[in-house]
């Protein structure tokens, strides 16, 4: 009698059950990694925008503004150049589930021609709705940017 090659139905069902268990264990970890990456990417975008605004204000000797979107920092932000500048304004939006807020006020940040921040220092927080922590972005009145982990969002 010839023996056929292949898997039995029971073997296939066991394999599918084991795969389903492994996937259900791994999925929450993958979601947390995706949420963490969204938080980091939004933080990098905001820090990059602030650094660009400062360097452009110094190089063009004009005011450059980082302003919140119409609905506030949580809806995004823009880098706005002086009307005489050749640069075009740029808009940014936080990643899904990430909120950005400015501590104490919802005002924009204006970098003066020497790179300093008009109105003093600024602090922004970047948080993800599904993570317990976030990032704090501090901008000194001279325009230096530092970031730190925020434990409670």
From TrEMBL:
Name of the protein this chain belongs to: Type II secretion system protein H
Subcellular location: Cell inner membrane
Membrane topology: Single-pass membrane protein
GO biological process, one term: protein secretion by the type II secretion system
Source organism superkingdom: Bacteria
Gene3D superfamilies hit by this protein: minor pseudopilin epsh domain
Coiled-coil boundaries: none
Organism: Halopseudomonas bauzanensis
